[in-house]
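Weekly structure sync - notes
Attendees: PM, LS, DV (DV joined late)
Agenda: review two folding runs queued last week.

Item 1: First target. Sequence and structure tokens pasted below for the record.
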Amino acid sequence: MTEEEFAEFYTRSVHRLTGQLYVMTGDFHEAQDVVQEAFVRAWGRRGRLERDLGPEAWVRTVAWRLAVSRWRRVVRGQRAWSRRTDPPASDGPEPGMVDVGRALRRMPPRQRQCAALFYVCDLSVEQVAAETRLSTGTVKTHLSRARAKLADSLDRPSHSGESSEV
């Protein structure tokens, strides 16, 4: 891929990839950071990108892996701080609203990744399996569990401090 082709590829896909990673991570600034870092890494291997799954899939996969690595560091840091003090209080969504971002963040990373690739990136189960290097059966399992968690969240909107009555 020449410099001009890479620049065109970047222009064509940076916003879409940032949006996709935003859905996967739940943090827009984090999505921007990991997508930019993935493009920097892609620049160094731009001659080989066309032979991979596809340049956009490669950048998305690298960005996702960067996000997971950062997430793990944050979780380790939070665990260390939680041993010293109480976690900060969160206001959360308004009563009666569904917090899709919170529902996605409650999913395990692989489940969230599969759901975002399938529903947001509009990839087929086979494409999700190829990009995540999981079997199609495993992808289907992750999607089924993600749908169940999202449906549960949609059926029971968040109410801060209220008990749920049926």
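Item 2: Second target, run right after the first with the same settings.
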Amino acid sequence: MALREDDGLHQPMIRSNEPVPEPVSSALEDTLSDTSLSYVRRLRRATSIELATLFRLAAPAIIVYLLNNVTSMSTQIFCGHLGNLELAAASLGNNGVQLFAYGVMLGMGSAVETLCGQAYGAHKYDMLGVYLQRSTLLLMVTGIPLMLIYIFSKPILLLLGQSTSIASASALFLYGLIPQIFAYAANFPIQKFLQAQSIVNPSAYIAAAMLVAHILLTWIALYVFDWGLLGASLILSFSWWVIVVAQFVYILVSDRCKLTWTGFSVLAFSGLWDFVKLSAASAVMLCLETWYFQILVLVAGLLENPEVALDSLSICMTILGWLYMVSVGFNAAASVRVSNELGAGHPKSAAYAVVMVTLSSFIIAVICAVVVLALRHVISYIFTDGTTVAEAVSELTPLLAISIVLNGVQPVLSGKCFF
């Protein structure tokens, strides 16, 4: 495959002896444009085609995001069973500070999803590797100022009015998460690079295997070696780096990536400013969705009984975060579908993909909200044994259910604004 080395999405130059890949889901565009069929039959057939394609992409993507999220949250759960202070510290560290870095990195990494998806749909395969390297470089640089927030987290939390005991314990937990920042910087571009090619199963297998290993390593760190909060967070950082390395090894050895990964390129250092603008815009969109989580957690730490307030609110936020990953998975699948279809010149298919993914995510969110309401009196015991916290969580559950439904739609739609 001979491709022009530019950043445009023009049709590539293809050698005559090489087959031209068929556009993604061309059957959907043909069905939507088939005037010989009645409107109802067109919708029925198009729905069948799109749902099959969408869930083939969305299911593994959701599993990846859920498993990655559960890997982080399992550390919080382990810390919660050490005591209320440890749970409050891990919750404040995870949901109050670490979530900020997660949102920035995931948001900026979403630029790769847009660009790689369109390049793949337009058959400009070599540009996917360039975008991957360019994004990783940019995110690594972004990780430096984020690291400073972690280093000075204790005075920052004290300045925001947190108690000395919680601020000190949270800062200790965050020190061990500093390597995780740079794991995010490498992980999200790699994930988006693979997703743009509809390669999602390998990431799911890696995430599942690492979750099992992470739980075992965390148990050993806390209950065998008694490493405490710092040890728990260091194990979490280590687990994220294992995920990154495993995914990159897959890219290097897999035949499915031989056209899209051709090695390191100096093109990664070109066009950085335009890439910065696109990445920053996508990061702001996602950060606006996650900042209210952090504000609520920080405000909870200012209440009369901060440990119980932080524990109960953080449990609700953790549950919401798990279900939020379902919407993010649909967002990723929809972004792949839309960008691939636009790159292949299929506007009707792109528009129809947006409708179907939004409806699918909304229906699943409603079902999850009903389940959470039904389990409101017992769901907190996953995280802690305290009955006081359980009662507080039960009172917050109706608001949690409403948030679940709203988050079932908003993250999915926001991903389409990049096109």
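Discussion on item 2: The chain has one domain: 41-418.
Action: LS to circulate a short write-up before next sync.
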